[in-house]
Design a protein that fits this description.
Elements: H1 2-13, E1 62-69, E2 74-75, H2 96-106, E3 133-135, E4 137-143, E5 148-154, H3 160-172, E6 194-198, H4 201-204, H5 208-215, H6 220-223, H7 232-252, H8 257-261, H9 274-287, H10 299-325, H11 329-356, H12 361-366, H13 386-391, H14 395-433, H15 436-470
Parallel strand pairs: 1-6
Antiparallel strand pairs: 1-4, 2-3, 4-5
Helix pairs in contact: 9-14, 10-11, 10-14, 14-15
């Protein structure tokens, strides 16, 4: 079986037909599966790649990622000592003898610990679970397109020295072994064009250059741009790179600059969701409670409770309409329970309203007793015209209610997006997986439920928007259309 695998790999890679004669930039005799999308100068990159401007060289970027897998382990066992790999370092692994030699060179470096406390999985490995194992896992270097570049065995956990070795082997795949990298203009190996992603990268690259100078001096120039320093030179180069990229974008989109410059540049302030706005209002009122009346300190809680009651009224109207069109015992019970809970909540809120808004008592009394609970007017500031609010001295509540509705708008948009995604997923699931009447009926029931929930959130959003308009929505936001 081992011989068969080597023969198949040799045929597949073209080594049996002398492919190295045509692909001289790759390591001679290699049997790995190369990624066809990763940039390789003189092969799948245009011939003038050396002339690519510095601010555009990221378009030919080689992106690599490194990570350890502690599940790909191997227990110590009595095996045939003559059973060795026949690939002879032409694939992803080193020869055992070469690997042991590199380990001895790397053993001179003390194990480093990452400075990130939430990324120190390497230090938290329980050595007891490695008992009777001669390989405790592997470290892989892969490209962005999930093609493996190199693999190294781990012994007693993930160490930076092993990652160095795996990284070195991956970089060797992009240079011929008989070429001195210091004399070869491999400009694709630069800070712009080579990116190594690692979950503990900031701890890994701190002493990367020192380790490579001692063990892999031929690849120092390849990895040196990857190290981040706090020197002024790096800051200046970074600034120039961003400046050049910005200028490149301006040149590409220069025909649209005039129309973009004419757009409104007014500040767009994101206040946060309803909960964040409510917490901020409470903190402001608590800090100013010494200079304001005791009743006014409860205004934010009172207005927020009124908004929630309005939402429950709309939900009760939706359920009542569903009961009218599809009368079932379950829906009837839900309407009855919701009505009872809403009546108690509204009565408690009315008691607070008589204390905080005594000027609207006449309006509350004028409301007929036979008005449906879901249609009952709360007489909040948004229920009055601007002139009436001035007469009733409700100005201090208008700002609070506007802020809370603005925060709720973000919540409702998020809810609508989630319902739309759920509806799309259910429709796709029904189209692909549902077969037969029982599965189709169940899927249709879920779709109807999500559709009704989406429409309810849309109604909440439109009502919230209309309330903001009545309270004086800023002109900068008044051009937003309602959701249909």
């Amino acid at each position: 079986m081992q011989v068969w695998r080597v023969l198949i790999a040799t045929k597949r890679s073209g080594q049996a037909h002398g492919i190295d004669e045509f692909l001289s930039h790759r390591r001679p005799g290699n049997l790995i599966v190369h990624c066809p999308l990763c940039p390789e100068p003189y092969f799948n990159v245009d011939g003038d790649w050396c002339a690519i401007p510095h601010f555009l060289r990221h378009l030919n970027q080689l992106q690599l990622t490194s990570d350890g897998n502690h599940q790909a382990n191997r227990y110590s066992k009595n095996s045939d000592p003559l059973s060795i790999s026949l690939f002879w370092r032409r694939a992803y692994y080193l020869l055992d003898s070469k690997f042991k030699e590199d380990l001895e060179r790397l053993s001179g470096f003390a194990s480093e610990k990452t400075t990130c406390t939430h990324l120190n999985a390497a230090e938290k490995q329980d050595r007891k679970k490695f008992k009777n194992m001669n390989i405790t896992g592997i470290i892989n270097i892969q490209c962005l397109h999930v093609f493996v570049k190199s693999t190294v065995d781990m012994h007693l956990g993930e160490r930076f020295s092993l990652t160095d070795l795996a990284y070195y082997l991956a970089l060797c795949e992009y240079t011929a072994l008989n070429i001195d990298i210091s004399e070869t203009p491999l400009c694709h190996i630069t800070s712009c064009d080579l990116i190594l992603s690692y979950d503990i990268a900031f701890g890994y690259i701190r002493h990367l250059i020192e380790r490579y100078k001692a063990v892999f001096p031929d690849m120092v120039k390849a990895v040196e741009p990857q190290t981040l320093t706090a020197e002024l030179t790096h800051a200046r180069d970074t600034y120039l790179q961003h400046k050049l990229r910005f200028q490149a974008l301006c040149n590409i989109h220069k025909n649209q600059l005039e129309s973009w410059n004419a757009l409104d540049r007014g500040e767009r302030t994101f206040r946060g969701n309803n909960e964040a706005v409510f917490d901020a209002l409470i903190k402001v009122e608590e800090s100013s409670s010494s200079t304001r009346g005791s009743n006014q300190t409860l205004s934010a809680k009172f207005i927020n409770e009124g908004i929630l009651i309005e939402i429950e009224q709309r939900e009760l109207r939706a359920k009542s309409l569903l009961l009218k069109n599809h009368a079932t015992a379950t829906v009837a019970k839900e309407v009855e329970d919701d009505t009872r809970r809403l009546r108690k909540r509204l009565d408690d809120w009315r008691s607070q309203q008589r204390e905080l808004m005594p000027q609207v008592r006449d309006h509350i009394s004028s409301q007929t007793t036979n008005t449906l609970l879901s249609e009952e007017t709360l007489f909040l500031p948004s229920d009055f015209e601007d002139s009436q609010r001035s007469t009733l001295l409700l100005g201090f509540l208008v700002t609070i209610k506007s802020d809370l509705h603005e925060g709720m708008a973000f919540d409702l948009i998020n809810h609508i997006q989630q319902q739309v995604k759920a509806l799309d997923a259910l429709l796709a699931h029904k189209r692909v997986h549902c077969r037969g009447q029982d599965q189709t009926t169940r899927a249709n029931s879920q779709i109807v439920c999500i559709t009704a929930q989406r429409q309810l959130y849309i109604d909440h959003y439109n009502s919230n928007r209309n309330t903001l308009i009545r309270l004086g929505l800023p002109k900068a936001n008044n051009n937003e259309e309602s959701v249909g």
